[in-house]
Amino acid sequence: MFASTVLGLEALVVFFATLVAFGLRVAPPGVVWTAGAVLAVALVLMAGSVRRPGGYLAGSVGQAFLVAAALVVPLMAVIAVIFVVLWVLALVLGGRVDAERAAWDAEHVAPADAPGGPAPAR
Model confidence over 17-33: pLDDT tens digits? Predict the structure, then answer.
């Protein structure tokens, strides 16, 4: 969930960076808007795919594109570093939280065929 949130926030940042790139006239407007829209939509799609196989790899590729955006708008380097750190934390801590949640569920949730019936929903 944390990884998905990071990618979603990155999509918003890319949109605002696109506005900056457009205002600074770093490239023709069509190129700026197309590149910004493609990257923002790709990040939203990646956010939805982190639960599928290859989703984390796709998100990591998205980080590389965010870092590459710093070649066009140099101040994006600062933002890219922040989001890369958040992405790594999401991968490390998110995996840990998922493992702890699975262990807790295994210890505390009654199976559906137990005499008391299925476990209550959370």
Answer: 999 999 989 889 999 99
CB 37 within 8 A of CB 18: yes
pTM of the model: 0.73
Is residue 100 exposed (0-12), middle (13-18) or buried (19+ Cβ within 10 Å)? exposed
Per-domain residue ranges for the chain?
Answer: 2-107
The sign one gets for the Cα dihedral 49, 85, 66, 40 is positive
